[in-house]
Write a structure and sequence with these properties.
Helices cover 51% and strands 7% of the residues. The chain is mainly alpha-helical and 397 residues long. It has a domain of 266 residues.
Length: 397
């Protein structure tokens, strides 16, 4: 018996095309890997490569965007203050004048600290290492030879090609080394370092306290204006003469006030219509006023956003200060703690002393005068030679 099998000529064409595509794809991958082979290639390297355009943009344009950010902070802060006086003060004055006086005094104290610390954070240089580290002034301008301190550089900056003291790092935006560098803040258009770190942190702290104060003082206004939306009969763009008066409908179907009473009694005297006029609260006026209502919405969105943004930053920096670290050192020390079991930060003197050093509460300075009130005192030391747990200097607090 003969078996005849028919084989179509195009039966294996699809499989051949598939194998050819797979072979070409693998060949392209092998070629790309061969041309880009690097024994140092890793996931971190690839991420850094992809982030390079962002780094380039920040390095070249952050210094110009910083001025825009400073302008935006100034405008937003001014708007919040203006709306607080325009909307909040009449509301609280109607409720209780004594409470209004307290709120004005307390709010202006916060505003004074916010303005002062922000201004000082913007104009105060973070501190830069001198070109020659062999001679450094200990207390201002030296008058005697014993007032000169001989120092040694901790390392050499690869970008500045200059000696770099301890705790000093290079800022790519400022393009120079910063003493005790924490980070570059675009909202200050300045680096946060040894000489202005206190201004930066107290600005954030007082700003957080200020917006929290506004939220607490204005939560009832927001509830009545945005949630209840009680206008008390006041309609925007309506004739205020309609309130508290009898009304009638004219031929066009529009309500008009009845101001002239044509009814007479038995002796031809006009009748008296003493209609009760409902009291209108300040909250109802705010709800009926279109621009004041928008101001309440603006305040709510702005203040809640600032609380969420600054709340985390204040807590994060407070942890770093308590451990005697900057933001840069916190990242470096976190890696050292994983590799070294007995690692100890040489600048950690305990929470209390770390805060005293950071706030500059040395040489008889007090918390009441130099923290609760604006103070332009500088930090202890020079920023070039630091206190350590193994070596304390003469001006130890």
């Amino acid at each position: 018996m003969v078996v005849i099998r028919w084989r179509l000529p195009g039966r294996g064409v699809g499989r051949a095309i598939k194998n050819w595509i797979i072979w070409k794809w693998e060949q392209a991958i092998l070629t790309a890997r061969s041309l880009t082979y690097n024994e140092h290639m890793s996931q971190s390297y690839a991420i850094d490569f992809m982030m390079e355009p962002i780094f380039w943009f920040v390095d070249n344009f952050a210094k110009y965007l910083g001025k825009v950010f400073v302008f935006c902070v100034t405008i937003l802060t001014s708007l919040v203050v203006v709306i607080a006086y325009w909307v909040g003060l009449p509301y609280w004055w109607q409720r209780c004048p004594y409470t209004s006086v307290f709120l004005v005094i307390f709010g202006n104290w916060l505003l004074l600290n916010i303005t002062f610390h922000y201004y000082m954070g913007v104009i105060t240089p973070p501190g830069y290492p001198p070109n020659d580290l062999s001679v450094v002034r200990r207390h201002g301008r030296p008058r005697r030879k014993k007032d000169l301190v001989l120092l040694k550089a901790a390392s050499i900056c690869k970008k500045c090609i200059a000696p770099k003291p301890p705790r000093t790092h290079h800022c790519s935006v400022c393009d120079r080394c910063i003493l005790g560098m924490d980070h570059h803040c675009p909202w200050l258009n300045n680096c946060v370092g040894y000489r202005n770190a206190r201004y930066f942190y107290l600005y954030m702290l007082y700003m957080l306290a200020g917006v929290t104060f506004i939220i607490v003082a204005g939560i009832d206004i927001g509830y009545q204006v945005l949630w209840l939306n009680d206008t008390g009969g006041i309609i925007p763009y309506n004739d205020p003469d309609l309130i508290g008066h009898p009304v009638r409908m004219n031929q066009s179907g529009i309500l008009v006030p009845v101001k002239v009473i044509v009814e007479y009694d038995s002796i031809n005297f006009p009748r008296e219509h003493n209609l009760p006029m409902p009291p209108v609260t300040e909250a109802q006026r705010i709800a009926a006023h279109p621009w004041k209502r928008k101001g309440v919405v603006f305040m709510a969105v702005t203040c809640v956003s600032v609380v969420l943004a600054l709340g985390g930053l204040v807590i994060l920096h407070a942890k770093n200060i308590s451990r005697g670290e900057t933001s840069v050192e916190a990242a470096i020390n976190a890696k050292l703690r994983k590799t070294k079991k007995k690692f100890r930060n040489p600048y950690d003197f305990g929470r209390r002393k770390n805060w005293k050093l950071f706030l500059g509460l040395t040489q008889g300075r007090t918390f009441l005068r130099h923290v609760l009130l604006p103070s332009s005192h500088g930090p202890a030391g020079t920023g070039i030679k630091w206190h350590t747990v193994d070596n304390t200097l003469e001006d130890w607090p």
